Amino acid sequence: MKELLERRLETLAAEQQKGRQALAELDEQRAQLARTLLRIEGAMAVLGEMLANPSDASGVRSHDAGVRQVPPAADAAMPSSNGGTP
Where is this region: Disordered (predicted)? Predict the structure, then answer.
């Protein structure tokens, strides 16, 4: 009888360890998913602001071209006050 109880105790201890390991893995997955959702929410907020203020979006990287679109300098578009010579 004692041997049977000892084997059952060992079995339960092993199951408990497996359960704790599975719970730790789920906790890590949950934390990772929470970080991913936070990044997505941040990206959504930025895109929402860009849509609300389209004039502010001119200096943002173009996704398709992979290059930064920079508006021309204000002073380069305007003639200088001394007749165009620097």
Answer: 55-86
Q: What's the CA gap between 16 and 10, in Å, rounded?
A: 10
Q: How far apart are CA 78 and CA 1, in angstroms?
A: 98
Q: Kindly report the pTM of this predicted structure.
A: 0.54
Task: Single out the residue of 54, 53, 59 nearest to residue 73, CA to CA.
Answer: 59
In a domain, 83, yes or no: no
Q: Is residue 17 part of a domain?
A: yes
User: pLDDT tens digits for 30-72?
Assistant: 999 999 999 999 999 999 999 999 886 565 555 554 544 545 5
In a domain, 68, yes or no: no
Instruction: Kindly report the length of the chain.
Output: 86
Question: What's the structural domain count of the chain?
Answer: 1
Contact 61, 68 (CB under 8 A): yes
**Ranges of H-type helices in 1-86:** 2-52, 74-77
Q: 68 pairs with which residues across the strands?
A: 61
